Amino acid sequence: MSGRVESRLAELGLVLPTPALAVANYLPFVVSGSLVFVSGQLPLVDGKITVSGRLGAEVSLEDGQSAARQCAINLLAQARAAAGGDLDRVRQVVRLGGFVASTPDFTDQPKVVNSASDLMVAVLGDAGRHSRAAVGVASLPLNAAVEIEAIFELV
Prior knowledge:
Blueprint lengths: L3 H8 L17 E4 L2 E7 L2 E2 L2 E2 L11 H22 L7 E12 L7 H16 L6 E7 L8 E9 L1
Parallel strand pairs: 5-6
Antiparallel strand pairs: 1-2, 2-7, 3-4, 5-7
Helix pairs in contact: 2-3
């Protein structure tokens, strides 16, 4: 589809990938009423993790931010699938939950997840503003540096 949001993606030079399939006994997203709950997305490109390891150790803040941005791109791909291919149906990004693999002394998890938040606003405007959590964790699946989940509201 070529709506307002798709035009904005093109302006930003972003191409959303085919949404990743679930790799275990869960769904990539669940629609309940007008809400879409998107399972945690990793920084995957072509099925490969783009940034692995822990912030505060082998992963720089900038690489962590890049990973969070890729997670946001993958979240939008899932949201588009949930919305029947039409991201103009997104009324609001309700919440992002960001998980950052990090050392115990790393405290810049919000700075990492900010790049996902910034992307949502860049793509969706005011509808991209959301509540959020940014949490440090010991490790993530596939040694990913970042994982982000989301809740979207559709019209």
